[in-house]
Amino acid sequence: MAYRGKLAIVAGGLGGLGSATAKLLHSSGASLALLYAPFEASRRDPQLEAAFGKPTPDTVRTYEADITNEESVKAAFAAITKDLSLQSPPVFPSILINAAGYVSVQPLVDTSAEEAAKNILPNLLGPFIVSNAFFNLYTSTAAPPGGEKPPGRVVSISSQAAHVALPNHGAYCASKAGLLGLVRSQALEWGPHGITSNSVSPTVAMTELGRKAWADETKRNEMLAQIPVGRFAEPDEIAEAMEWLCRDANGMLNGADIRIDGGKSS
């Protein structure tokens, strides 16, 4: 299987696009380390059971972490490092998926600094902190006995909002555009260390939250009218693109962003 012997760390792996990507990587042999926010603790086991069929799936571990807090992330990665040292057969931490995020909707003039920070911290600072922790883990982990390190892969979920302005999404647009700048910087600095960094920019995806957010028929139809293919994305479509970016064979893709928006931002 393509990812046997590899560990995929997924920030935001208990639901939505992060869960869809984690499931796909796991089905192809990857071991998983799922980072979840403290407020998700009560939902952890039900979410795992919904995704994997049981609350304690094989080769899947979970770690509580506030991705906007550097010390919290360091503690989670210390726990991951300890678990890796005890794992047999060994697995190598070669993949990071940045899938956690937040969006709020209101006109810019009505957006307080506090509300803007709720978007910017998890959507931009979180990937910054978690990715740095992943870089340190990847570069400090010895190659498997008798072999070489597998390629490192960082894949982050941006948004169509990084490319086109969306009404009442000012703070979210800014945070996701900033994430693309971070991805390009990682690609430049980390490529020489064997790590590529890329992103995907979806339109509305029909996750559980997506269905709730776009339940209003008038609002939904207005957005659909702007998408040339006439529909929203399915989570599996996003997961397939993210998994593709994780493959060993795609080492020349670095600093790229794949728009999965049905042509909306063309």
From TrEMBL:
PANTHER family tied to this protein: NAD(P)-BINDING PROTEIN (PTHR42760:SF122), SHORT-CHAIN DEHYDROGENASES/REDUCTASES FAMILY MEMBER (PTHR42760)
Similarity-based family: Belongs to the short-chain dehydrogenases/reductases (SDR) family.
GO molecular-function term, one example from the UniProt record: quinone binding
Keywords annotated in UniProt: NADP
GO biological process: fatty acid biosynthetic process
Organism, scientific name: Cyphellophora europaea (strain CBS 101466) (Phialophora europaea)
CDD domains xrefs: SDR_c (cd05233)
Protein name: Short chain dehydrogenase
Keyword Nucleotide-binding tagged: no
